[in-house]
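G., before I forget:
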Amino acid sequence: MTNSSKIKVYQEVLEQIRLFIEEHELSEGDRLPSERELADQLGASRSSVREALRAIELLGLIETKHGEGTFLRTYRPYHSVELLATFVLRQPKTKEELLDVRQILEQQCIIRVMDHISSEDIDDLIEQLVTIDEQEVHEFIFKQLFSIVGNELLSKIWYLINNFSQASYRIIKSKSEYVRLLSFIKNKDIPNALSVLEHLYFDHD
Amino acid sequence: MTNSSKIKVYQEVLEQIRLFIEEHELSEGDRLPSERELADQLGASRSSVREALRAIELLGLIETKHGEGTFLRTYRPYHSVELLATFVLRQPKTKEELLDVRQILEQQCIIRVMDHISSEDIDDLIEQLVTIDEQEVHEFIFKQLFSIVGNELLSKIWYLINNFSQASYRIIKSKSEYVRLLSFIKNKDIPNALSVLEHLYFDHD
DNA sequence: AACTTATCAGTGGTCAGACCACCACTTTAA
DNA sequence: TTAAAGTGGTGGTCTGACCACTGATAAGTT
């Protein structure tokens, strides 16, 4: 008898909820039965039902509204990704690894943004730079660029890496460097844009 | 006052557990405090602690042994993958994003591995392919390649993405494709290697 | 002394029930 | 007609109880 052979109640509830959703063809925004109802129907206690629901919630599959009910939501892995990341990144990573991954993400961001960004967007960005503190220029620009690229998952990963990075180092360059970068992006000049980007990661100014 | 502003107890517990693991530098196999202890320390009820623990368990971060305690484990998706599958399949956007990110990571892996891998390594890999089930060839090869590249952070991110991906699709190509890929890597032929890689993502065989 | 068995404390698993906060809706009062 | 108070249902949280399982200790047996 293996120790993992016993199925816990909350896991059974999990499966039943899944089946319920499938059978009733529920989709985004639809409401699930109340916790008490589920407990009753499935012959489990409300506690067990809640354990299952909280787990699904953390996965990002449902959304809970106090006083209203539990609703299906559009699934995005990002909630769990964030939590997983904090565990995965638990051990202090070397500065090089963080920088490496960061570079990959930002390179790809620049490559991909070329297809989506307009000249006006870039001009707007350059204008806004005036109001941004120099320490936050890098983060500001890439936050904008990533959101233009539109891949939320990519953005989220970058954002996490960015935050972890700032614990050990910070990219601070003069705004003129970023204006150059943006200009190359405007001209769809990938090689030069990437070249400028690479310079940003070095310490010397 | 937005409705999402209130943090639930179980979410706070989640965060505290994460911090506890960080502070005490716990790693795989280490035991967490008992549910009652956690409840006491964090000033929460055991129910709330359990909601948090069950959620983490579903994610695959911890393992629970009846009568013994709760233990950290290396991340392995638990029920989460099957559970997510039902939902992710209906979210084309998420699927696209996952594939996109995955492609980025695997491209970079191939580019980077060229500097670290020897001809013998590749020959070994090709030999081992015989024993691998066709369904797992892709995962197997990249697991090896990533470990050769040496950036643990990159590896872990890929591993996470890979697992999430498998909830919605799976890359299955004949082994000969992978032999081609490895051959190009052997010859340090980046363009052709990336070209083969790109083919892998398409459905047609 | 060595070995088996019984006991026990600690742990997770589950449940029932209580109370609160919140929301949508209805009823009531101005 | 409109504003206020009430109402029922919902999630959020806590308490305390009991069970099943585990590992170690104590007691008993050979």
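The CA atoms of residues 120 and 186 of chain A lie 9 Å apart. DSSP finds ten helices and three strands in chain A.

More on Monday.
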